[in-house]
Amino acid sequence: MTRLVIVLLLLASIGLMLIITIGGWSKLEGLRPVNFIWCALYLVVAFFIWRWSRGLLPIGAAIAILLLIIAVIAGTGVAGTSWFDRNHQGFGGAQSLLGGKGLSPDVLGTVTLVIIPVEIALIVIAMIGFAQGWNVELEVPDEEAKRRGSKVVAKGPETAAA
Q: Could you tell me the pTM of the whole model?
């Protein structure tokens, strides 16, 4: 269940980043290629976590921390102008990646703020998943395995090593 939630949070993060990237294309200064690289990186992490690669959980959490910092700065305007401030006189509207009119500053600001709780949840759940020890195999006696509902593989004759 943890693995599924982490993959869904990664996919949700990708979707939110793409909404901001496509809808606010003309107003993104130098982060255009970084956003696509970030999405591709999240997609690779989601793929390997889905395949039970526990080692990428801390990497995914670290990348989520970086995105969280960027979202807090962009959403709240800590470093200057937030998306919400672009509704005032003197600011032009965003153009979309596809050439049309982009999303409004309020929508872009709201999506940016939605990224914050998604990334916090991703960090927390990824660390919970890392603590679960997905890659640890525990050897148990046949009786215990049967009691837990596992199929016990019949043991064949063992050959002596020469």
A: 0.71
**Residues ≥6 apart with Cβ < 8 Å to 67:** 13, 17, 38, 115, 119
Alpha-carbon torsion 7, 13, 16, 22, what sign?
Answer: negative
What tokens does 17 get? 């980043």
Phi–psi pair at 99, nearest 5 degrees = 100, -15
**CA–CA distance, 51 with 49 (Å, rounded to integer):** 5
Of 48, 45, 82, which Cα lies nearest the Cα of 63?
45
pLDDT in tens, 105-152: 788 888 989 999 999 999 999 888 888 766 566 777 878 778 877 776
Residue 107: per-residue pLDDT: 84
Phi then psi dihedrals of residue 101, to 5 deg: -70, 135
User: Which residues, 6+ apart, have CB-to-CB distance to 60 below 8 Å?
Assistant: 6, 10, 42, 45, 49, 122, 126
Q: Which residues of 115-153 are buried (b: 16+ CB within 10 A; e: fewer)?
A: bbebbebbbebbeebbeeeeeeeeeeeeeeeeeeeeeee
